Structures are given as structure tokens and as C-alpha cells.
Amino acid sequence: MEKEDDVQLIRKILSGDDAAFSILVNKYQKSVHALAWRKIHDFHHAEEIMQDTFLRAYQKLPTLKRPNQFAGWLHVIADRLCIDWIRRQNRKQEQELVMQSLEDTRPDEIEASSYTHHISEQRLTEGTEYCHELVQKLLEKLPENERTVVTLYYLDEMSTKEIGKFMGVSVNTITSRLQRARKRLQADQELLGQEFFGHLQLSDNLKENIMSQLEQLRSNFDAFMAQVKSDPASREDTLKEASNEIEDALKGGITSELAHLVVDDIYPYMGKLGMEKRVPLLRKYMTDTLDDKERFWTHRGLVNTLAFLERNQEAIEEQTRLYRWACQQSEKHVLRIITDLTPAGCWKAEGRTDDWINLYNEASERLENPDVSDYSRCDFLQIGAEILRSFDRLDEALLGIEKLERANKEQRRNYYFRFWLAVRTNRLLLYSKKEDWDHFDEVWTDTRAFIEGEVEKRDAGYPVNIDDLMWAAHDVGCCLVWSKKYSEARSMLQTSIDLESNNHYCHFQLAVSIWASEKDREKTLHHLKIAQDDYIVDSYNYRDSYYPAFLETPEFSDVKDDEAFLKVLGQT
């Protein structure tokens, strides 16, 4: 009867009866709060997650296909918000250990801040989605009611009593569903284990030993970072000691776990020294591994590392090798190999843009393959257009954006907004380069109306996606700075910051626009200092500060030697 009540309430809500949603909130708020509290161990933040859960549920309610499964669906939303909260806390803890880097900033890397954010989020999403796919293969074998119970019991460690209370059914019913689900899945447990560990079959003891060694290595390196932070003068000796310890660990052979830890989590914090050491490690692991997924990850990492080190010719050769290998062995990776901004700069630096475009056009033929996902198709078109724009192939870039707009047609997709925004920001930059101000103003007016409308909805208490709104204001604001529309840029960038954006680049761009349009010294230095301070904490230590970007910014040409500006940038 309780589930039928949920169905009736949902029908009323979808018909415009918001009071019915209040009934659902009252019905489930305690159980959602309890779930969040148990996962994050913070009472007050659990209250915030509970509130966000219901806001998301209200926004996404039209997408719920089975209203009688509202309770389980609500749990999934709360669970994902808890995971996001935990990730943010982990990032903050990691950021506290970050030291000042060994190398100066390359201006093109600073300018690519929005893309760097997207790539880091995309890599995190790809790894998470891979694990989810493996579990989903098993869960899809279950009926909906058993699937929900298995998710709550095994993945979120809820007791049968808690699940029964959450779903509004008896404990006996929950127990019966678990028993039936176990029988259905028993035959597939071995398959799941094989997929998680790939070709590497390990005993339980060996797995435990490997994880223990990895944790010890990570713990030791965290201690090194803390030492450097407390005593910057010890940086060189400390990094050398850390490097020696890593070398000793690698003598015992390179497992996938060790490779990922060292390449992704440790070497980047060692500045150029670590990036140089990445190259031989990646080359060796690429030769040793038999797994195509690992081979792709390793080879792509090698390409990007060489590009970062400005070993342009090597980066081009490796990217071409990786592309040809993928065409023969792993078709699903082909599109992602070509559309990568970092190595694309190597082709331009070597005067080989036409060679890159030939590869791009060759890869484009795969877009018509029905096996290519809509996301892959849109991602290829977006990044490809941005690279073409950086090559000053404006008409070809505009054609790519038009194709992207046609391809991004499923509004219900969770990636729809990303590509919707990419179309508009790329059009702004393309029309600015072409000095087509009529079309520029048309896109700007339309995009501004959307952003301001979403802000008004948020202020009125209606549910909006804060992250999407924040990044829309940020990305559009940056486009306006680059197009020398400083007054308009100030408004957008300030909106992004007001939405609790901690993006240091947003503050840097706001400082640029304020100085260019107002010459307000106090405001400019205020935002420049925030950018510099947050950057040191947030960066991977490939670079030192915003000073190189400051020198390359035309708007600051009149204050290059100003002591106040140099001071906030750590130069005095």
C-alpha cells in the first residue's frame, strides 16, 4: 500500500501539485539522512546531502520510469551525492600536502584551465564507469526489486532491517529477495572476479601483500610531501630520497596497481623530475602488459608526458603509433587518441598541422559507425573543433561545432549540458576570431539569458544544477575576456565565484577583466592574490605560480614591474 501511495503522490507532483512532494519529503527524510550520516560520518553535512537529494529528485522526477521503485531510486541519488562529498574531502586533504613546484607555468597550460578541469573529471568518470559496468552486468540479471535490495545490502552495507524500513516492506521480504538474488548470481561470481583483475590471477594473500606495499609507499610519499611543505629548503634532498624509494619498489616488477599509483599519484607531485621518470616507466610497462586496456592507458600517458616535456617529435611519433595500434587492436579507443589537446600542440610546434588534420579526417570516418556511442561522437567533435580553432582553421572548426550541435540531441543524457555549453563557448571564440560581431552578440545574448534565468530560479528557491551553472558562467566569462569584452566578462566571472566556485583561474581572469576595464588596483590585486594562493594549493606542482601567465597577459603590460603585483605573485 505504501508503494501505491508513492505512485499516487508522484502522479500528483508531475501534474503540478508541489504539496504532494512535501509529503514524500516528510516520509523519507529521516531514512535518507540516516543513510548519508552512516556513509560520511558527519551529521550536519548529512543534512545538506539530504536536502540536495530531494532537490535532485524533484528535478529528475519526470525521468523516473518506475514510480513504484521511488525509494530505491532516491537512495541511489543520495548515495552518489555522498560519494561526491567524500571525493571532495579527499581532494582537500591531498591539496594540503602540495608543495611549490620546480618549474614555471607554461602560458598555454594556464589558458587551458577549463579543459584541464574537464579532462580530470572525465578520467575520474571513466574509471568509475568501468567498475559500474562490471557490477551492472550482474545486477541486470536480477528483477528490479531484488536488484535494489542487493545494492543496499552489499554496496552500502545496510542491514535487512534498515532496508525494510527504507523500502516500506517486512524484513522477511528483504531476506527472501536476498536469497533469491544470491542463487541467481552465484554462477556469475567467478566471472566478475576475472573481469576486475583482468589477465592477472592473484591469490587473496598476494592481493593483500600488494595492497599493503602500495599503502606503505603512498604513506611514505605523503610524509615526504609534508616534510617539503614544512621545510622548503629540504625539497631537493627529500625528492631525491622519495625517488630512490620508488626506484627500489619498481625493482620487484611493475604490477598494474603499482604503475597507476606511481604514474598518476606520485610522479606528478615531483615536478619535471617526476615527469622525466615517467617516460622509461611507461615504456617498460607498455611492453610488459598483455591487457589492451592497460596498454592504451600506458601509451596515452606516454604521449601526454612527452608532450608536457616538449619532446614534440617523440610525442608525435608515439601518438601516431598508438593510433595505428588502436585501429587494428582496440577500435573503441581510436576517436579518443586523436582528439587530445596536449599532444596537438606538438604537431603545431613542429609545423605539421596538415598531418594532424589528415589523421583527424581519417578518424572522422568512424563517426558513422553505429557502434560509436553518442558521447564518444560528441566528445570527438568538440575537442577536434577546439584543436582546429587553435590551428586557425576557423571554417573547419565551425563546421565541426555545427556537427556537434546536431549530434547532441538527447537532452535527457547527463552529458547533454556539457556539449550544449561547448557549442556556445566555441562559437563565441570562433566569431571573435573571425570578427563576426553580429553572430557573436546573438550567441552571447542567448547564453546570458539562460545563465541569468538559472540564477533567478536558484534565488527563488527552485532546483537548479549549481555545478553546471557555475561552469557555464566561468567558461563564458573566460571567452569574453579573450574576446576583450571585459565589462561583460566581469559579470559572468563574478557570478561563477558567487556560486561558491573555488576555481583559481576564475579569479585570475576576473583580475584581468577588472584591470583592463576599470584599473581598480585594490580589486585586481585582491583577485590576483586569491588566484595565486589557491593555485599553489591546487596545482600538481608542474609549475610555480601565475607569474609566467601574468607576464604573457597583454592587459597587464603596464604593471609588469609593479612591486605590488610582483609581491602577490610571490616574486619579491
Question: What's the structural blueprint in terms of helices and strands?
Answer:
Elements lengths: L1 H13 L3 H23 L2 H18 L9 H26 L11 H5 L1 H27 L4 H12 L4 H8 L3 H15 L3 H9 L6 H27 L4 H16 L5 H11 L4 H18 L3 H17 L3 H18 L4 H5 L2 H9 L3 H12 L9 H17 L3 H14 L8 H18 L3 H23 L6 H17 L3 H13 L5 H14 L3 H18 L8 H6 L10 H6 L4
Please, could you describe this protein's structure?
- The protein is an all-alpha fold and 572 residues long.
- 76% of the residues lie in helices and 0% in strands.
- Helix 14 (271-288) runs antiparallel to helix 15, helix 24 (466-482) runs antiparallel to helix 25 and helix 25 packs antiparallel against helix 26.
- The protein is globular and about 70 Å long.
- The termini are far apart.
- The model is unreliable at 96-121, 123-132, 189-207 and 537-543 (pLDDT under 50).
Number of strands: 0
Radius of gyration: 26 Å
Low-pLDDT regions: 96-121, 123-132, 189-207, 537-543
The string of secondary-structure elements, in order, is HHHHHHHHHHHHHHHHHHHHHHHHHHHHH
Q: Biggest β-sheet, characterized?
A: none
Strand content: under 5%
Helix content: over 70%
Shape, please?
globular
Give the structure's gist in a few sentences.
The protein has about 575 residues and is mainly α. The protein is built from 29 helices and no strands. It has helices at about 1-15, 20-40, 45-60, 70-95, 105-110, 115-140, 145-155, 160-165, 170-185, 190-195, 205-230, 235-250, 255-265, 270-290, 290-310, 310-330, 335-340, 340-350, 355-365, 375-390, 395-405, 415-435, 435-460, 465-480, 485-500, 505-515, 520-540, 545-550, 565-570.
